[in-house]
Design a protein that fits this description.
Layout lengths: L26 E8 L6 H10 L12 E13 L7 E13 L6 H7 L5 E7 L3 H5 L1 H11 L4 E7 L11 H10 L7 E3 L8 H17 L1
Parallel strand pairs: 1-3, 1-4, 4-5, 5-6
Antiparallel strand pairs: 2-3
Pfam families: Ras
GO molecular function: GTP binding; GTPase activity
Keywords: GTP-binding, Nucleotide-binding
């Protein structure tokens, strides 16, 4: 499993233990991470959930499962001019990027409300793989909000995928959110923006 911090279990990386007790009034949403092996999906997840980074990470086998609660403000149903706080419990599924695990990873996409499609800004082939991942998500969770995220943004001098290329890809595969993001799990820059923006979009969808 990547980053040495993702929760894993005895079934190919799947944690079958029950999630911790929900806060009163919290709503649960399933979010999946998808992308080629080595792009940093696990590091991205553990940086957001635990604020940790382990450079000596191992590839995720099957899947890994993490959870985190976030509070977002959405327009009140009774009076849209004011906002209500909503607690979302994010069930975050980190799926394996190796081709031999694609069928397994695809099965975990079912029922997802959000999908984070991840590529490595220093690796153009990882961007080329995004189309296939987007199709897999679309086939299993057609209504999921999809974000495109470029990892390893701290490696500016090695960047091989431009932000314009990323925006073009986001537009081409008709994501639910047409912009793209860049983040660094190493420094933490941009990581919270990805997940908090997704949580906001999902909360507003649920409230509408």
């Amino acid at each position: 499993m990547g980053c040495g911090a993702s929760v894993s279990g005895p079934h190919g990386g799947l944690d079958l233990r029950p999630p911790e007790r929900l806060r009163a009034g919290a709503s649960t949403v399933k979010v999946v991470l998808a992308g080629n092996q080595g792009v940093g999906k696990s590091c991205l997840a553990t940086r957001w959930v635990r604020d940790e980074f382990d450079e000596h990470n191992m590839p995720t086998m099957g899947s890994a499962f993490l959870t985190k609660s976030v509070t977002v403000s959405v327009p009140s149903v009774a009076d849209p001019s004011v906002t209500d706080d909503t607690v979302l419990r994010i069930h975050l599924w980190d799926t394996a990027g190796e081709e031999r695990y694609h069928a397994v990873a695809k099965s975990f996409f079912r029922g997802a409300k959000g999908a984070i499609l991840v590529y490595d800004v220093t690796n153009p082939s990882s961007m080329e793989g995004i189309r296939a991942w987007a199709r897999m998500v679309e086939s299993e969770a057609p209504d999921a909000v999809k974000f495109l995220v470029g990892t390893k943004s701290d490696l500016v001098e090695r960047a091989a995928v431009s932000e314009d290329d990323a925006r073009a890809m986001a537009s081409d595969i008709t994501l639910g959110f047409t912009d793209s993001f860049r983040a660094s799990a190493l420094t933490g820059e941009g990581v919270h923006d990805v997940f908090e923006t997704l949580a906001q979009v999902l909360a507003e969808r649920m409230a509408s």
